[in-house]
Amino acid sequence: MKGIRWKFRGISAALLAGALSLGGVLAQDFDPNATLNLATNADPTLNPWTPGAVVESNLINTILFDQLVRYNKKDLSPAPGLATSWKVAPDGLSWTFNLRKGVTWHDGKPFTAEDVAFTFNDVVLNKKLGAQNAGNFSKVKSVEVVNPSTVRFVLNAPFSSLPYYLAYFAGILPKHVLAEAENPLQVASFNKKNPIGTGAFRVAEFVPGSYVRLVRYDKYWGGSPKIGSIVFRIVPDPNTQMAQVISGELDFVSVSNPALLAGVERNPKLQVLRQSQNLYYFVALNQNDPRFRDVRVRQALLHALDRKAMIDSVVRGYGTIATGPIAPLQKSFYAKDVPQYEYNPKKAQELLRAAGWTPGPDGVLLKDGKPFEIDMPTGQFGYLVPATLLVQQYWKAIGVKANVNVMEWNAYIQKMFVNRQYEATLAWWSTPPTPDVTPYYASAAADKGNNIPNYKNPALDKLLEEGLKATRVQDQVLIYRRIQRLLAEQLPYLYLWYPDIISVRNERVGGMAEINTATAFQHSSEWFVKR
User: Which residue numbers delimit the Solute-binding protein family domain (predicted)?
Assistant: First the structure.
């Protein structure tokens, strides 16, 4: 489940926010030969499009494989990467990208438009390969080579958010290395030993089960990186990762459990960092079940949850109450003035009574003689189990019985996401910083796509299409605020909270983008280690 897995990527260096910028730091104040020690939870696959290369691989691949577009370090708007500029056609059915000249691959070969066309035509759009995240580009028909430094993305429908998705784990692959492979995503010598990218660092050594060592690429188009190497140590256990950052063996860790911070707060060389992200937790109610098609029921079940208490209990206060799928991180698009659902059990009971539910002899609500019982599987991952058990207790207090079934993670994903064999479940989505939420809400994405609650609303579909057609930011703002209001009223998902990212860094490290994880790694050439 793409969106879920991305929250806990297992990259302990995931959140490199809050560090010092290079501004005001003189060259003699940092060590150009320093090594930065990060961690990942398992052996990575060094190919951004290989299926299953997610939690252990994404951020390393972001360093190795540049993208056409990367995020602006201040506001997450699309900024130049391998492409220096782009323009959409008047009819919205194509985008033309002007490529950066003079870029070379790690083996010295020149980067050209042929590499971009190969990455998308032969890999991403080749359905036989099943490339990771290929669904993000379902509206792309083909990529045309205009000339060696220009490509055109030809679309089958308007796709105004294309630049955002091109900045979202969409690294470009080398045609001259992979074009002859039967499957460019399964070349072991590339994926597990010697990948060739255009990023600020290249792979020098990969010792399975131990570490991956990257060294700076001095011919990087953005200028030679300011540190000599980055070592990703393979450390599966988060407790061990925390112990190693305290001892100085690691320079960064991300913190999945705030309870692990106890030893950090007493160490003057370590700083606890907190930042927001484009992610939200939710309860999905499977609307193939007729009980949940009544919006009053959905609203009641949200009113029954004390989300502030859940944030305090589950994530130790590191989060804010969610109002919809567009997080506050997207400052230009986030709409705060939408319907709110305060904790109000009495209001919840009134809404359920209006929907025809009345108390039974054992306190469980009844309708047409049937008790209000909900099958609610949950996976053994992160915050899911404790959060689900809290939901169970809150719903019990209003007469709704949730039968919680704790499952192994992969079995849970198969049951809930693939087969849709659930009535309610608590999960999360991590998405690109674009207001386009079509993959998670469109009627066409129900039952088999990322529309987990199988919510279908023609009025919403029309608004989503309008958003994809709009190319001016001011038009997009108006449309997506209308979308947020509709979603807050209708509650396709019961929105819980936007979690904060918690990470720990050694004070010797700086130069890292503050705004979010992907952006920090996209600008790795700017990282430095103070002497």
Answer: 78-447
